[in-house]
Specification:
- This protein is mainly α.
- The chain has two domains: 39 residues; 59 residues.
- The chain has four helices and no strands.
- The N and C termini lie far apart (81 Å).
- The model has no long low-confidence stretch (mean pLDDT 81).
């Protein structure tokens, strides 16, 4: 029975820093909000202050303008080729280390990956997805 109590006390000591951090974070958030409410100025609302701010322009027209499909195609192509770079970076970091043990296998897999993306790029180019004027 005594050993179990000792283990429980040791485990409680492990959680004290976590509980202390939660207490401090909660206290800081509460004090910050309280000070903000006490010291902040309550602005009187009016129609001008409650209207949407549109970069100095009067908010006229539809709430959500229609975008061309071209905009979304360019955005998707950007994401596609941006992710390619995300995969190339870690590969480039470990390439020299793996070159001694695996030799050409690591280069072959990346060349296959880049060639597939190259074919996708050529396809998008031929279809005119990268042409801004159309």
């Amino acid at each position: 029975m005594r050993a179990a109590a000792r283990v429980s006390a040791v485990m409680l000591k492990e959680y004290i820093p976590v509980l202390l951090q939660i207490l401090i974070a909660s206290g800081f958030a509460a004090v910050t909000l309280l000070i903000s409410v006490m010291l902040g100025k309550a602005a009187k609302s009016n129609a001008v202050k409650d209207s949407a701010y549109e970069c100095g322009m009067l908010p006229l027209g539809e709430a959500q303008p229609r975008f061309s499909v071209k905009f979304y195609i360019v955005a998707m192509l950007f994401v596609l080729f941006d992710i390619e770079v995300v995969f190339l970076y870690p590969w480039a970091l470990v390439y020299k280390d793996y070159l001694q043990g695996v030799s050409g296998a690591i280069l072959g897999t990346m060349l296959g990956f880049v060639s597939i993306l190259g074919v996708a790029f050529v396809y998008a180019w031929k279809k005119g997805a990268l042409n801004w004027k159309s």
